[in-house]
Amino acid sequence: MDFEFSKELVALKKEVRAFAEEKIRPMADKLDKEARFPRALFAEMGKRGYLGLPFSEEYGGKGMGTLAYMIAAEEIARASLGVALSYVATVSIGTEPIARYGTPEQKEKFLRPLAEGHELAAFGLTEKTAGSDAKGIEMKAEKVGDEYILNGTKQWITNANYASIITVAAITGYTSSGEKIISAIVVPLNTEGITVTSPYDKMGARSSDTGEITFKNVHVPQKKLIRARNGWFETVAKCAKWRPHFDCSDFSWPCARRV
Ligand SMILES: Cc1cc2nc3c(=O)[nH]c(=O)nc-3n(C[C@H](O)[C@H](O)[C@H](O)COP(=O)(O)OP(=O)(O)OC[C@H]3O[C@@H](n4cnc5c(N)ncnc54)[C@H](O)[C@@H]3O)c2cc1C
């Protein structure tokens, strides 16, 4: 079995390393000390195609696959854990659910600007009552006509202040035995009723933006639902293939959270 990278991947690794050494490493310490998110740097990474590495060329991605993306994550993490954390959050948990499960219409609207590198994405599972215990969420998405009305608060959301969209897990109903039905819904973060705050003073990865997002009577058209009726858990399980990317940039995560 051949475990060597292809010529294309070797070239990518070399390119991202050079970029990270030249553009990220020199400012990494300062960004971390000042807890400052480098939005301009992400614009440059977007122009270079790094935000679209694994996504289909049909929707503006590079079509280079998961390994290419993991190589980029590892090289970025060599220079800055904070930048790498925001990078993996926007590409994988932020964008992948739409790439994997979105309708063609949702992909055109949401995936394309992300894969082309113009925008950033976030992912919202964690709440006061839900972390490791993902089913503990309390956010409600009540169906009224052809809309969902969202109420609840998501905590510890990476890229909260800079993402254009978030895919949230919300309760869309209950089974006859009273179990929650949890669905995934894409919500543009400029929708009325959304408030983003930054209550965290992290110990590490401080250049990665982390915020709390409150949804108060946020109206979302039904067509923004990407996985209905507990499809959310299948979504997360299928996206588990993305888990290794966090390991690529994971060495100091325990320091990220001030306890
Ligand atoms: C920097 C940062 C960025 C984040 N970004 C996001 C994001 O973008 N989106 C998002 O949704 N969330 C995000 N999170 C939240 C993260 O996903 C949660 O912190 C994580 O799921 C753990 O949940 P918790 O903090 O509630 O800890 P808990 O679930 O309370 O766990 C605390 C400890 O108890 C242990 N534990 C829990 N259950 C058990 C059990 N049954 N048996 C044994 N041990 C157990 C855990 O391993 C852990 O060590 C982020 C967190 C951080 C620190």
From TrEMBL:
Keywords: FAD, Flavoprotein, Oxidoreductase. PROSITE patterns: ACYL_COA_DH_1 (PS00072). The keyword Oxidoreductase applies. SUPFAM superfamilies: Acyl-CoA dehydrogenase NM domain-like. Residues 122-218 form the Acyl-CoA oxidase/dehydrogenase middle domain. The keyword Oxidoreductase applies. It comes from the Bacteria. Its cofactor is FAD. GO terms for molecular function: acyl-CoA dehydrogenase activity; flavin adenine dinucleotide binding. It comes from Listeria aquatica FSL S10-1188. Residues 7-117 form the Acyl-CoA dehydrogenase/oxidase N-terminal domain. It catalyses: a 2,3-saturated acyl-CoA + A = a 2,3-dehydroacyl-CoA + AH2. Belongs to the acyl-CoA dehydrogenase family. This is Acyl-CoA dehydrogenase domain-containing protein. InterPro entries: Acyl-CoA_DH_CS, Acyl-CoA_Oxase/DH_mid-dom, Acyl-CoA_Oxase/DH_mid-dom_sf, AcylCoA_DH/ox_N, AcylCoA_DH/ox_N_sf, AcylCoA_DH/oxidase_NM_dom_sf. PANTHER family: ACYL-COA DEHYDROGENASE, ISOVALERYL-COA DEHYDROGENASE, MITOCHONDRIAL-RELATED. Transmembrane segments: none annotated.
